[in-house]
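Our collaborator T.R. sent over the components below with a one-line note: 'Predict the complex.' Nothing else. No constraints on interfaces, no templates requested, no preferences about which chain binds where. So this is a plain run: every listed entity goes in together, and whatever single assembly comes back becomes the starting point for the next discussion.
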Amino acid sequence: MCVTCGCSDDGETKITNLETGEAEYKHYHHTHALPDGTVITHSHIEASQIHAKIHNTTISLEQDILAKNNLIAAQNRGWFKGRNILTLNLMSSPGAGKTTLLTRTINDLKHQLSISVIEGDQETTNDAKKIKETGCKVIQINTGTGCHLDASMIDRGLQQLNPPLNSVVMIENVGNLVCPALFDLGENAKVVILSVTEGEDKPMKYPHMFRASDIMIITKIDLLPYVYFDVQKCIEYAKQVNPKIQIFQVSATTAAGLENWYAWLTEKVTNLS
Ligand SMILES: Nc1nc2c(ncn2[C@@H]2O[C@H](COP(=O)(O)OP(=O)(O)OP(=O)(O)O)[C@@H](O)[C@H]2O)c(=O)[nH]1
Ligand SMILES: [Mg+2]
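Returned assembly:
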């Protein structure tokens, strides 16, 4: 269950290795202990049913889910650190431009950085196929009914991806401006991507995502002449919810502003070791 929106991620998750074409399925079973000692083990259970059974222990269930996730995220973080791998968690609403920015970044930096990708979507391997065309290693995680990636999915995905030492792993999260903010994956930094077609008020409306993020990339700036989007106001709103957030303005199609994003990325890789 997602602790943010309550949607069910208790179903089947599929990890497809784009190198081999092999798919691995994992069926999630969750076990929760209630204060009276009762243990609920469930799969394919709707969040509403869980809430009905244990409605006054919802908070401890949320803490249970997040604590378990944080533990695995810490293990992932150690795994990345031991291999000197920089990992970024890219999040945005659906269609903001994550895959387009990723493919452009990989193509532009492929002679400087070794980048592998974990793609997260509810269904299809479309994005992983686009990434594969760049020639880099990629796996696709399909979350089915789930609305975000979690640390255990990344843990299993890494076994398939097997990224090289001293490299970069980019995680494209499921398109969703709410739930992914809550789930630590063991990444070095969270990057929120906001396109100019979404409106400048999004940092105020979805503050958790912008508060959790280290970087905000305002993208599709080539469309600014055609949409009402006040860049300065957007920056102001983002800084209000997160004064430390670092901001880039780019277009993945015209390449405007990409040099600043690339400079940040390469510096981050250099300072990792
Ligand atoms: N004009 C313009 N269009 C862009 C830019 N970046 C992405 N797009 C377009 O926006 C649409 C969505 O881009 P994607 O990269 O698929 O977005 P996404 O965030 O990966 O989408 P999901 O994975 O479905 O959440 C596509 O039609 C892209 O061509 C940009 O910088 N400028
Ligand atoms: Mg995508």
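Summary for T.R.: Residues 92, 94-100, 121, 127, 175, 219-220, 222-223, 251-253 surround guanosine-5'-triphosphate (ligand 1) (CB under 6 Å).
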